[in-house]
């Protein structure tokens, strides 16, 4: 057959098996280290099992997320792995009643918990703020992601829990809703400085906003960490190369991607996989951007 350059007919095979051996991936964006790691881990795990991926984006917009999922279903994907932020839990429950199962990554919906791989973001937010408090910071500013995103809400909940545990009031003047991008961190620090409120540290709910805050601080001659401590979230690859190196919360997005792929291989193809873990626990990665006072 090799001498004849024979290639199996994929369409005929899919008709015979009722499978296309293709998995849809829906992510919010294609740029940035977070989604790059996620997609690479998913694709690698699936490719080892002889499966291929089709990728689309939702841009954290409800209409686009629904259109993207509809597109992947129309392409006869055997399953979909989705990082979605704008569609409701009710929509995700309803879509999972159809023929194409949708697995969620970095999101938890109780009614379809068996299809979710998520991170304990409340614990992550708690650990970040607790680290600053243990370094004697009490006037702590907080930069959140967009509040329609579950990750942002949960990380803020953890932050408030740490403050309450140490009897530190939450200060609305030291709270800013950013965009999970570098510009959000820059805008946040500019806002905090304009309030004339005293603060010695900032919790940024992702590393991209932390890098933006650090950039703004450098441009305005604010020394990090001596004058201002900054902690991030996600531990993306560039966090170790910022100056100073960024203290952050580890978000094992690559492991979560691999785990979501294993769930698909186990559920849809009945392939034996390693043990499946649905909830990941974050950890503190101490570097150089937090200074004790």
Automatic annotation (TrEMBL):
UniProt cross-references to CDD domains, sorted A to Z: PBP1_GalS-like (cd06270)
HTH lacI-type domain residues: 1-17
Entry keywords, A to Z: DNA-binding, Transcription, Transcription regulation
Transmembrane domains' residue ranges: none
Domain of life: Bacteria
Pfam families: Peripla_BP_3
GO MF annotations in UniProt: DNA-binding transcription factor activity; transcription cis-regulatory region binding
Protein name as annotated: Transcriptional regulator
Protein species of origin: Paraferrimonas haliotis
